[in-house]
Design the sequence.
């Protein structure tokens, strides 16, 4: 019998058409052992009737009585989940039709499977490239050059065992932004590197800079990202003094940071500046 996968979608005063599109992208999955849980995070009464109309045998609607934030909404939805695996999907994003099938196909002996994210903005589409970071993590974990201490990496789509979610205590509800980064980093504390799988052909479609986008408040987002990185370094018992922002990597499109100890910047040999652009180097192309 195939494993049941629960897709969790938080919603707050959003676009119902986009929510329907997100749900339809789940219904279009080639892998069929799925349930969808939409958590309404205290939306206005106007949405109640429309949300109830989305209910079906495979779609459940749960409600927060008042707005408590996306982390709380995901946690509440997860408490109703029956699936062995959890997948996070924002209400204005979609999954490629083969996404879950490909993650399930690579789930054997793994606790966390991460795929590729396509960022749609205006008339452009940009591929995020997190794969190199997972390769580097296996080499540099538990050192100052752990790539997840000094980089904020896209981890959508993400399929994680419900047991791991429960083990780490779900999302930290004090994180108003960057809650996914913090959650991912805490998961690394309980998952062995061999239990993490990155695949390039499971695609998440992220639509950037819409009216209700969680990335609209950039200042707050960067504040919480930095907090997540510092907490991760503390959990890893790395005695650094600070973490500073460097910029976006040209080839991976991820946000790059550097650790500081004794007033010295700890510069990993896999980060280079070429023509004033940040480049992440790779073992695979013999650059490091």
Sequence:
């Amino acid at each position: 019998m195939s494993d049941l996968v629960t897709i969790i979608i938080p919603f707050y005063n959003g676009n119902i058409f986009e929510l329907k599109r997100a749900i339809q992208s789940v219904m279009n999955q080639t892998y069929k052992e799925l349930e969808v849980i939409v958590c309404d995070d205290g939306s206005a009464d106007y949405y109640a009737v429309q949300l109830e109309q989305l209910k079906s045998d495979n779609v459940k609607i749960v409600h927060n009585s008042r707005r408590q934030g996306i982390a709380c909404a995901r946690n509440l939805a997860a408490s109703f989940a029956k699936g062995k695996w959890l997948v996070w999907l924002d209400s204005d994003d979609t999954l490629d039709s083969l996404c879950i099938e490909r993650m399930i196909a690579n789930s054997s002996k793994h606790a966390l499977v991460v795929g590729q994210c396509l960022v749609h903005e205006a008339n452009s589409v940009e591929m995020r490239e997190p794969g190199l970071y997972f390769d580097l993590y296996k080499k540099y974990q538990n050192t100052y050059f752990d790539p997840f201490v000094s980089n904020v990496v896209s981890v959508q789509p993400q399929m994680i065992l419900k047991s791991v979610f429960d083990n780490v205590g779900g999302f930290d509800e004090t994180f108003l932004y960057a809650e996914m980064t913090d959650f991912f980093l805490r998961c690394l504390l309980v998952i062995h590197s061999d239990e993490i799988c990155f695949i390039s052909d499971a695609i998440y479609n992220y639509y950037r800079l819409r009216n209700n986008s969680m990335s609209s408040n950039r200042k707050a987002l960067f504040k919480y990202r930095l907090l997540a990185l510092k907490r991760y370094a503390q959990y890893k018992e790395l005695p650094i003094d600070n973490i500073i922002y460097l910029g976006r990597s040209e080839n991976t499109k991820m946000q790059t940071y550097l650790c500081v100890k004794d007033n010295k910047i700890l510069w990993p040999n896999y980060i280079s500046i070429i023509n004033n652009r940040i480049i992440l180097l790779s073992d695979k192309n013999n650059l490091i």
User: Anything to note?
Assistant: The chain has a mean pLDDT of 93. The longest strand covers residues 196-207.
